[in-house]
Amino acid sequence: MDIVKTEARPLSGAQWTIEADGQEAVVVEVGGGLRAYRAGGVDYVDSYGEDELPDGCEGQILAPWPNRIRDGRYSFGGQTRQLSLTEPTRHTAIHGLVNWQPWRLESKTADTLVVSCEMPAQLGYPWPLLLRTQWRVGADGLRATHQVTNVGRAECPFGISVHPYLRLPGVAVDDLLLRVPGRSRLLLDGRLLPIGVAKVAGSEYDFTESRRIGTAVLDVTFGDLDLDPAGAEASRVTLGAPDGSAAVSMWADPSFGWWQVFTGDTLVGDRHRRSVAVEPMTCPPDAFRSGKDVIVLAPGQSWEASWGIRPGH
Q: Which of 273, 272, 260, 257 is nearest to 224 (CA)?
C-alpha cells in the first residue's frame, strides 16, 4: 500500500480569526471553542498555543452536559444510561461529548463566523444533536450564540456551558476583585459532586459585592442569581484590577442560571492559579441525575442562548 504524506496540522486544528473595532477572537476546529480573545491589544482570555492541547479545558464548549455526572450513570425516559468515565480519578463523566470533536466552518465574514458539529448518537447518550455556534466581535466585545437541535427521533436531555479563563495582564489572581451575582453555592463532596446548598451571605464565598479573591481557593457553583430585569444580559461576573484601572466582565442571558468559578489551583506548571475560569451553565453539576434545570428537547426542536465577554465592568 502506498503511503500518502499529508501536511502536518496544529493540534487544535484549523484556526479561524475574526476582527472588528479593535477586537479579535480566534476559534478552533477541535472542540469549536475560543482559543483567544483580545481587545485593544490586551489578552483578556488566558490562551494556549495553536499546537498545544487545552489541558484545563480552556475555551471549550461543554455539551450535552456541563461539569460532572456521578459515576457517569443517570436515568431518562424510564431507562438507565451509562456514560464513559472521562474523569476516572473521581469516577465521573465530565464536560460532555463535543469538546474534542471536530467542528466545521459554515460561514465567515470579517467580524463573524459560524461553526457546527454533528454529534452522533452513542452509548450512554443515544441521541444525535446538531450544535451550531455563531461567534461575533465588535465594539461591544465578544458575543457567542449557541443553537442546539435534536435531530433524533426521541426527546433527549441537554445542558451546556463554556470554559474560558479570564485574566487581567499583570494582575495576580490573588489581587483580582471578583464579583459573582450568586446568592447561594452548592456544597460538594470529595469528588466535587453536589450534596447540598448553602447561602453565601456573610461567608467566605460571598462575592455579591466586588472584593479581592485573596487566598480563596474556588471551584464553586453559584446559583440563585441576581438578574437584571431590564435586559437580555441577565447576569454578569466581573474581574477588576485593585486600583480600578482595568476590568473584564462576562455576561449570560437568562438561559444560564448558574455560574462556575474556578481559580485554577489544580492546574500544573505555569497555568497554576494564573487566571480564573468563569463558566455560565444552563444546569448545575450532576443535573442528569437530579433533573435540576435540565433542558428536554423534543425531536426536531431547537434551543438557543447567548453569552459574551467585554472589557470593563
A: 257
List residues bridging with 303 in a β-sheet.
148
Average pLDDT over residues 266-291: 96
List the CATH number of the domain containing 304.
2.70.98.10
What's the domain count of the chain?
A: 1
Q: What is the dihedral of CA 94, 96, 101, 105, to 10 degrees?
A: -130
Say how far apart CA 52 and CA 47 lie, in whole Å.
Answer: 10
Task: With beta carbons less than 8 A apart as the criterion, state whether 69 and 38 touch.
Answer: no
Looking at the predicted structure, is the pLDDT value of residue 92 above 80?
yes
Count other C-beta atoms under 10 Å from residue 88's C-beta: 10
* Rounded Cα–Cα distance for residues 298 and 210 (Å): 41
Can you give the pTM of this predicted structure? Answer: 0.95
Give domain status of residue 82, yes or no.
yes
Q: Which domain holds residue 128?
A: 15-311
Phi-psi category of residue 13: left, alpha or beta, with phi > 0 → left and psi -120 to 50 → alpha: left
